[in-house]
Design a protein that fits this description.
Distance between the termini: 29 Å
Structural class: mainly alpha
Number of domains: 1
Order of helices and strands: HHHHH
Number of helices: 5
Largest sheet: none
Radius of gyration: 12 Å
Shape: globular
C-alpha cells in the first residue's frame, strides 16, 4: 500500500490538511487554479511519513523536493531551490 492510500490518524489528517493547504498556496508546479484545493493531497500524504526523518529546514527541503520528483519527474518538480520557502513553513508547522 502506498503512503497516500493508508488510513490516517486524526493528528496525521490535521497535519496532512495543513501541508496540502501550504502546498496549494505556494503552488510549486503551477496546478492550483482555485477550484481544485485537493490537487496536492497525494504529495501532502506522501510527505507525512518522511517528515519524521527531518531535523533541519534543509532536510525538509530535500524531502519535499524528493517527493515531488517521485510523484512527477525532475523536470516538472523543478529545482530543489523552488522548495525552500515551503520547507521553512513546514518546519515551522512541525514545531507547533
Amino acid at each position: 500500500m502506498r503512503d497516500d492510500e493508508r488510513a490516517l490518524t486524526a493528528e496525521e489528517s490535521c497535519l496532512a490538511a495543513g501541508l496540502e493547504a501550504l502546498l496549494y498556496r505556494h503552488d510549486p508546479i503551477g496546478i492550483a487554479f482555485g477550484d481544485n484545493p485537493d490537487e496536492y493531497s497525494p504529495e501532502a500524504r506522501a510527505l507525512l511519513p518522511r517528515l519524521v526523518e527531518t531535523r533541519t529546514v534543509d532536510d525538509v527541503q530535500d524531502v519535499v523536493h524528493a517527493v515531488f520528483v517521485q510523484w512527477l519527474d525532475e523536470g516538472t518538480a523543478g529545482p530543489r531551490t523552488r522548495y525552500r520557502l515551503i520547507a521553512e513553513e513546514i518546519s515551522a508547522l512541525l514545531r507547533h
